[in-house]
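S., here's the first fold you wanted:
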Amino acid sequence: MKRMLSGIKPTGRVTLGNYIGAIKPFVSFQDDYEMIIFVANLHSMTIYQEPKDLRQNTKDLIALYLAAGLDPEKVTLFLQSDVKEHAQLGWYLNCMVTMGELSRMTQYKMQVEKAKARKDTSIGAGIFNYPSLMNADILMYDPDYVPVGDDQKQHVELARMVAERFNHRYSETFKIPEPLTPRVGGRIMSLQDPTSKMSKSDPTGKGCIYMLDPINISKKKIMAAVTDSDSHVRYDKENKPGISNLMEIYSILDHKSYEEIEAMYEGKGYGEFKKDLAEIVGAELQRVQDAYNKIMASGEIEKVLDEGAKKAGRIAYKKLAKVERKMGITIRK
C-alpha cells in the first residue's frame, strides 16, 4: 500500500476551506493509502500564539479530524511536537539548503512585502527557516504522495530537491515524494473575495465559514456570498469566480458534477442556488458538529494522540538513526 502524508497547522479556527481541501479528502484516502497525518504545532510557533487559544485550536482540530470520519485504526494521527525527531532532522536538513533557496519561498516573500507595507523590517527567523522543518516532516516518513493545494506545491518541490541532494551526498536515504493536487476543492476561496483563498484570518469573518460556528450564521454567509451581475449558474473560474467557488463547494459536499449542477439550475437564478447550497452546507456542519461534541465529551483524543505518536515515533527513530549514521553525527556505524 502506498503511503501518504499531510499536516495542518492549528492556528485559528478550522474553516470550511480547511475541511473541504484538507480534512475531508483524507476520509476517502484512508482506505486506499497508508495515511500519516500530523498537527503541525511546531510550525504554529513562527508567529505568536496565545497559549490557551493554541491549546483549544489544537484539540478542536484533532476532534474535527475524527468527526469528519478519520479512523485511528487506519490512520496514524499525532502531534508534531510529540515526535521529537522532527525538530532534530529539521536542523540537519536546514544545513543542506541555501539562504537563496529559502528566500525564494512564497510565504517568506509575502511576509517581506507585508513588513515593507507596515514599514517594519523585523521578520521572525522561523518564517525564514520553517521550510527546513517541513522538509523533515515530509522526508522522515518516506511518503509516496503529499497532498497539497496549488499554493503549497513549492514546499514539496523543495523537499524533493533536498532529498536528492542528501541521497547524492550520503547515498540513498530518502524516498522522493510526489505532490498530489486534488482536481476539485483544493483551494476554496473567500465568499466575499473569490480571488483570495478562504482564510482563518479573514479580517471581517464574512468571507469565511468556520466549522464550529452556529449553523444559521454559516447559512447567512452563503446567502450573502459575492457572485456577479449575471444570473446563470455556470462554472467559469476566470469570468465567474464567485459562483464557480460556490459550485465547487456544492460539488464536493453533494457529490455532483459541475454539469449536473448547471443542468439543475438552468433557467433559475442565484437566489435559489444559494438557498439550496446553504442547506447543504448547514447539513454537513450539523453532522460534523454532532460528532465533534461526542468526541470532545468522550476523552478519546488523548488516547488517539498517544497511540499515533508511538507509531510515528517508531518510524522516525529508525529514520533519524539512519540519517545520523550516514552523516557521521554518531560514532556508531
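And the second, which I think is the more interesting of the pair:
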Amino acid sequence: EDGFEGIKLGDDPIGRAYVEFQRHLLALNQRGVILAINSKNNFDDAIEIIRKHPNMILKEDNFASFRINWNDKVVNMKEIAEELNIGLDSIVFFDDDPINRDYMRSAFPQVLTIELSDSSSYSQILKSMNDFQVAKITNEDIKRSKMYLDQRKRTELQKQVGNLEDFLKQLNISAKIKKADQYTIPRISQLTLKTNQFNLTTRRYQEEDIRKFVSDDKKIVECAQIKDKFGDNGITGVYIVNKENKQEWLIDTFLLSCRVMGRGIEEALLGQIIERAKMEGIKKVKAQYIKTMKNKPAENFLSDFGFIRNGDIWVFETTKSIKKPEHLVIS
C-alpha cells in the first residue's frame, strides 16, 4: 500500500532492521525452513517489490506459497497449509499487527504465533527461537525449498490436466530403493522422528537405533528416493521390516513424506516389500496401524491394499495378487 518508494528497506534504522530480518529468514530457508507469504495487499504491487526492490534480500523463489490478497489471513493460512500439505502445528506466524496475531491465535492455536514489538527486535526474536534448531541438517533439508518450488509446478499441472490418472501419468514418477548406509541413515532417522501423517506406527528412531537395525540380519532397513519430471523429491519414504521367521515378516515402520502422498508411491513401496517376501518364500507379511492424533491419512491404507485384520495385526497372504501402480517405475 505504501508504494515502491515507501517501502522501508535499506538505509535508515527501520529499513536496516527489516533487511537484517530478511537475512536471517534467508539463512533459515537455506537450511530447509519453508517460507510463505500471508499478506493483505494487492498482489501485483507486492510481487513487484519482491522482484525489483534493490534492497530486497528474499526473492520470489524463496517462497513456497503466496497468499497476497484481501482475504481473511486465517482463511489464507488454512489454504497455505493445504497447498504445502503440512499441519497447522508446523507453521510459525510473524505479523506486525497485534489484531491479526490475536485472531490467528484464537482461530488456530496450533499455529505458533510470535509476539512482536518494534522492528528492531525481529531478528533477535528469530535467532532466540529454539523451534528452528536441528541437531543435523540433511541433504534433503538443503534442497527443500527447491522441492517445494517444484511442487508448485506439479500443482499447476494438476489444475491444467484435471483428471488425476492423466496427471499421474504425465509426472513420470520413479522410485529408487536404497539400502540404509552411512549416507542415508541420518535421513532415515530424521523421517522416523518427524513424519506424522502417513506413518503406520510412528515409531521414533535415532541414528544409533538405525545403525543397530542395519547390523541385524533379521531386519530390512531401506528408503526410497522419489523423482518426477519436475525434479528430485529426495529420500521421502522409509520402511523397516522384521524377519520374524521363515514364513512371516512384520513391517515395523512404513512411512512416506506428506509432500509425495497420494501419487501411488505408497502402494508401489508396499507392493515391492510383498514381492520380495514372496520371492524369499515368505507366506505372510504382517503390519500394524497404530492410531495417533495425526496419522489419519494412513488409517485405511492396509485394508485398501488388501490386508486382513486379525486383532491388532493386519495380514497379507503373499499368494494374493499385488496392486501395482502402472504410472511409476520402481527400481
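Why I say that: Residues 139-161 form the longest helix (23 residues). The chain has eleven helices and 13 strands.

Talk tomorrow,
H.
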